[in-house]
Amino acid sequence: MKSTFISKEKNDVKFTMEFTAEEFEAAIIAAYQENKGKFNIDGFRKGKAPRKLIETHYGEDVFFEDAINNLFSQNYFKALDELNINVIDRPNADFSEIKKGEGFNITITVTAYPEFEVKDYKGVEVDKVEMSVTDEDIDAEINNLLQRNARMIVADRPAKEGDTVIIDYAGFVGENQFEGGTSENYPLKLGSNSFIPGFEEQLIGCAAGDEKDVVVTFPEEYHAPDLAGAEAIFKCKVHEVKEEELPELNDEFAKDVSECDTLEELKQDTKERLQKSADAKAQAQMKNTVIEKIFNANDIEVPAVMVEEEVDNMLNEFDQQLRYQGLNLEQYFQYVQKDAASFREELKDEAHNKVKTRMIVSAIAEVEKIEATEEDVNKELELMAIQYNLDVDKIKTMLGAENFAALDKDIKMKKAVDFVFDNAKIK
Fold first, then answer.
1. Surface-to-core class of residue 188, CB atoms within 10 Å of its CB (0-12 exposed, 13-18 middle, 19+ buried)
2. Which of 221, 245, 269 is the last residue of a domain?
3. 3-class DSSP state for residue 174?
4. Residue 62 DSSP SS3
5. Could you tell me whether strands 2-9 and 164-173 are parallel, antiparallel, or unpaired per DSSP bridges?
6. pLDDT in tens, 242-252
7. What is the CATH number of the domain that holds 224?
8. Where is the protein found, in the record's own terms (predicted)?
9. What is the pTM of this model?
10. What are the b/e assignments for 103-129, b being 16+ CB within 10 Å?
11. How far apart are the first and last CA of the chain?
């Protein structure tokens, strides 16, 4: 096979793959050996008929398609390597006239990854961002710690906002009890807004043993179409009213919830932890500013196929988020009164910017010869192992070759962002 570069217009590359008569004949023989068992010829057992006899019965081009497909698949990526073409889309192929005993050409047109020179990525000026931790921040964090360690005790009084009521309920629309609207001994925190608007407020003032008909109207955008906008009655019975009892804030509490011996040590540890988090957020904000300035300084053409692919990824991620909430894209489109085409159009600007950013950062990594070392990879694998509570070896097995390549690329991108930040001018 001989590959020959023809032209490049914008990001569309054209080249030919030329096959000799001998190469074509060898591919036909291989196609015959692979497919001869599919043909029934009188006088021969299946798979034993000679090639010439099959060609006589079914046409001399009977094995052409398989032979050509095999030649293409075996040589396409080899040609890309020889011509140093990095493709980002499926190829369009145009074939010359195919005749037995002769060679032929395939002319390929395909979209290639854009070639560009990234500029102005060193010495980017960015204002220093500092985030300080206040006493109020520390108090709020300690209060959250108290809340997480609170215990529920029975309150011998009517329920108020913030209490948890243990209830049975059954939902009806008209005289019909609807599916999914029934539960027993359900713990509902009043004021959590976890139920239909108006439900929780009607249980305020109820005591243990009380029964209450809660009347609500389902939202128009409710995920169950048969209930959307409908008025419903929930027949409720309150079994218990419970309130939170916070632990006493003292040295003993500090010992129970941390490795600190005193409350003052816990507060100091909390301050240091919050400040570390604040510093990380400040640095992330400055990094984003640096990348944004480099983004604006580089006017590069982003191929439409890459934007469409990113839109696909964004849609898939959004669909997964919806499914966690018991919805899907089709239901979402009904709620917002949009169709898939218009929603895709809305995502294109964001998708374009994401792709352009990745292209720029990837180009910086290539120019600066940034690599993902074995130490970098192992560090990421250890973090993943902690996140998923698995052994590192198990993580390696689960990733596979394709995901390992993606991990390698992600590490390079992160290091490239760190590189431009380290070379920025912080004012």
1. buried
2. 245
3. coil
4. coil
5. unpaired
6. 999 999 999 99
7. 3.10.50.40
8. Cytoplasm
9. 0.74
10. bbbbbbbbbbbbeeebeebeebebeeb
11. 58
